[in-house]
Write a structure and sequence with these properties.
The protein is mainly alpha-helical and 66 residues long. It contains 2 helices and no strands. It has one domain. Helix 1 runs antiparallel to helix 2. The protein is rod-shaped.
């Protein structure tokens, strides 16, 4: 991937994948590839949420100290 993926872009792509699978628009030859992509996007989103949560906690903790 050439540019840094954003959480919003990852979520939008996951929605596209979900809609494509639900509509029957994925043939069997593409299924494993698209599911692997979804798995990577889910991991990316989880990691991003974790990082943001840690950042917010750090900010809140620094406010409590002041």
């Amino acid at each position: 991937m050439n540019k840094e993926l954003t959480y919003k872009e990852a979520l939008m792509r996951l929605e596209e994948i979900m809609n494509k699978i639900q509509s029957g628009g994925v043939d069997i030859d593409e299924l494993a590839k698209i599911l692997a992509e979804a798995q990577g996007l889910i991991a990316f989103c989880r990691n991003h949420i974790y990082k943001v949560e840690e950042d917010v906690k750090g900010i809140i903790d620094s406010l409590d100290v002041e």
